[in-house]
Design goal:
5 helices
Length: 209
């Protein structure tokens, strides 16, 4: 197979093969994975199969098939994927309690089924910070956190709700007061209209004497 980059946002993933059993097997495997393929008969009699669907489809196939020799030649530094819009959840199927796999990469980004995923350390980092705050706070002392929601993809992300829940889950912090503070925010820049109108100040007391 071969992979070539046209520009910073698109590439070409293809394989050329003589007609026969090997080509038939490649086509069968691609169809079994629902891969959209364009077939072209070359002048020398070989057939070139080109993967359609853009960079997302190409990286999804590369990530699932893992062709070692081809992957060793590919360099994607400085390239990016264009947004493909929101994905809609069509079904939720309970599977019970199962083990999960925790992934981490040096760049904090990886591909899952053609989608760019981020193994952000935001929650993990802040849970460690929260644990340290609880540790150094004397019994009966107060823990005060100022936090704000933000807008992502035109929707408000409940950062404050996550923090409030995380603080209660420690089992050592008792809510004293939740203060909603109106804030004017900056009204400049491309996202000047995407601002929440307030912040939160959470006051909790450390259990114990």
């Amino acid at each position: 197979g071969s992979y070539s980059l046209k520009n910073e946002r698109s590439g070409r993933l293809a394989v050329a093969q003589n007609p026969g059993l090997v080509l038939d097997e490649i086509i069968r495997l691609l169809k079994s994975r629902n891969v959209d393929v364009h077939s072209h008969l070359n002048r020398d009699g070989t057939v070139t199969l080109t993967i359609r669907g853009g960079l997302a489809a190409q990286l999804s196939l590369l990530g699932s098939v893992r062709p070692e020799r081809l992957l060793a030649k590919i360099r994607l530094d400085g390239h990016y994927m264009r947004a493909v819009g929101e994905r809609r959840v069509v079904a939720v199927i309970p599977r019970g309690r199962r083990e999960i796999v925790r992934l981490a990469t040096s760049c904090r980004t990886y591909m899952t089924e053609g989608l760019v995923s981020h193994n952000s350390t935001y929650r993990e980092t802040h849970l460690r910070i929260l644990a340290e705050m609880v540790r150094v706070t004397a019994p009966g002392g107060l823990v005060v956190i100022n936090v704000s929601n933000h807008i992502r993809n035109r929707r408000e992300v409940d950062v404050a709700g996550w923090w409030h829940g995380a603080m209660k889950l420690t089992g050592l912090l008792v809510p004293e007061q939740d203060i909603k503070v109106p804030t004017p925010r900056m009204r400049y820049g491309q996202n000047h209209g995407a601002r929440v109108e307030h912040e939160w100040v959470f006051v909790m007391r450390r259990r114990g004497r």
